[in-house]
Amino acid sequence: MTVTANERLGLAPTDPRPPAETQPAADRTETNPLFGDQKMKLGLFGTNCSYGLIMSHAPSSYEITWEHTKEIAQRADRLGFDVLVPVARWKGFGGSTNFNGNCFETYTWAAGVAEATERIAIAATSHLPTMHPIVAAKQATTVDRISGGRFALNMVMGWVPPEMEMFGSEQREHDERYAYGQEWLDFVNKLWTEQGTFGIHSTYFDAELLEAYPKPHQGPRPALINAGNSPSGIEFSARNVDFNFASLDTLENIKGYTTKLKAKAREEYQREIHAMTYGLVVCRDTEEEAKRAFQQVVDEGDWGAAGNVIKIAGSGASQSFDHAVKEMQERFIAGWGGYPIVGTPEQVTEELGRLNEAGMEGMIFGLIDYNEELKYFGDEVMPLLKQAGLRH
C-alpha cells in the first residue's frame, strides 16, 4: 500500500470545517435563472469564439475582444435572457476563417462575465478529458461564488480528435468517453458535496485524502448541462444533468426526442430533466430581408471549415450530428448544425412557440451580429414573446 504524504510527514488531520465552508449558501432555485419560471428560456451561444455560430465571412461587427464579449453579456443580462453558454475550443477548424479558433477559455471567461453581470446564468463548457476533476470542481465553485449561484457546467466528452492530440492522447471510443465522463462527474460531485476528506478508487481515477472548500454557492450543486444526443449521451443526460441541449432537424423529431428523454429520466432515474435546443436566429423587418441575410451567410460561407467539421463528425467522433452529416454543409455554415429560425419578429415568436410545444423549454442561439441584433431582438421580439405567454 502506498504511504501518503500525510503519513510520511506526520501531518495533523484537518479539523471539521464550519458550515460556511461545508454548506451551499442558497438553494439554486432562488439564485439560478435556469431554474426560473420562464416558459421559454432564452440564451446566447458561442459569444466567446470567433465567428460565433456562423462559418462565414458575412459582414458583422462581432469580434473576440473582452470589451465586446462583455458588452454582449451585459446587454443580454439587461434584456432578461436566462443563460450564456460558451463553446469550448482548443483548436480552430481551419479553412479561411479558422472557425472558432480565436477564443476565450470558458471557465475564466465565465468568471469575468459573472462579475460583469447581475442576474443571467453563466455556463462554462468543459471538455472533460482535458480538465482534471479537482481543478474543474474548484474553478466551478469559484465562478459560482463570484456569480452568487448563477453558474452552470456544460459537460462535453471531447469529440474532436485533433484537439485531443494537442493534449498528447488518443481520443477514447465514443461509449468509453461517457464511461469516463460518469466517473469524472461522480468525482466532481463528491468534491462539491462531501464535508470531510475522502478517497476515489475507480477505473479512471485513484486518489486519497481529497477535500475541497468552500462548496458551491448554489445547492445541492450547480446546474449541469450536456448536449449528447446519441444513446450513450441520452443515458448520461437522463441520469445526471438538469438540461439536455439537442441538435434536431424537424419539430416532429424534436417532439419524439423530448418525450423519450424526459420519460427515461423519470422512469429509470426518478428525476426530472429539461430539454433545450440551439441554432441561428436571423430576424428582420420582412421575411425577404431575413432570408436574404441568411443566404448571405451561406453564400460567403467557409466551405473548408464546414467540410472539416463534417469529416470529423462523420468519422464517428460525434454521434450527436449524425442527421446533419448527411445534409448540406449549409446547416453548419449557418448555425453550427443547429435549428435555424429565419423571419420577421412575428415569425420568430411563432417558431419559438412551436419549439416549446414540441417539448423544448428554451433555446440558446447565435446571431450574425450579436451585439447589434440583440438590440433589435429586445425591441421587436421580446414584447411579442410576452404577448404569446412564452415570457413574462
UniProtKB/TrEMBL annotation:
Pfam families given in the database record: Bac_luciferase
Stretches the record annotates as Disordered: 1-33
SUPFAM superfamilies from the UniProt entry: Bacterial luciferase-like
Protein name: LLM class flavin-dependent oxidoreductase
CDD domains for the chain: Alkanesulfonate_monoxygenase
The entry's keywords: Flavoprotein, FMN, Monooxygenase, Oxidoreductase
Record bears the keyword Flavoprotein: yes
Domain named Luciferase-like: residues: 59-361
GO molecular function: monooxygenase activity; oxidoreductase activity, acting on paired donors, with incorporation or reduction of molecular oxygen
